[in-house]
């Protein structure tokens, strides 16, 4: 598989990792099952469902960036900020929750995959520009 195609695969995987939580928009039971928490108020439900929409935006950007190279810098930055900030906040908070530990692990994998996709993307651009000269 070429570096360019592998970059696409990595962006698709990172995009799916970020996009999947959009399902939380459908209701509290999905959020509760995914995160192992009790959505105890309409206000918390609103915030968590809005968070699901934001994940859909980040994941959607990464999915589109898999095929639109011009979007990769912005999508990569958004994805890395999202996943890295969760990892930092998780470390600072240290919750005792297996589902959130699973989210942390998914984000750590997502960070590595996205960085690999970015590196392949940059390598492909560098090689492409070398052929122009």
What labels would you give this structure?
133 residues, single chain, mainly alpha
Shape: elongated
Largest sheet: none
List how many beta strands DSSP finds: 0
Low-confidence segments, given as residue ranges, are none
Helix content: over 70%
Beta fraction of the residues?
under 5%
Distance from first to last alpha carbon: 26 Å
Mean pLDDT level: 94
Number of helices: 5
Helix/strand-derived category reads: mainly alpha
Radius of gyration: 17 Å
SSE sequence, one letter per element: HHHHH
Topology overview:
Layout: H1 3-19, H2 28-35, H3 42-65, H4 72-93, H5 98-132
Helix pairs in contact: 1-3, 1-5, 3-4, 4-5
Q: Any overview of this molecule?
A:
By secondary structure, this protein is mainly alpha-helical. Helix content is 80%, strand content 0%. The chain has 5 helices and no strands. The protein has helices at 3-19, 28-35, 42-65, 72-93, 98-132. α1 runs antiparallel to α3 (42-65), α1 (3-19) runs antiparallel to α5 (98-132) and α4 (72-93) packs antiparallel against α5 (98-132). It is elongated. The mean pLDDT is 94.
Quickly describe the structure.
By secondary structure, the chain is an all-alpha fold. The chain contains 5 helices and no strands. Helix 3 packs antiparallel against helix 4.
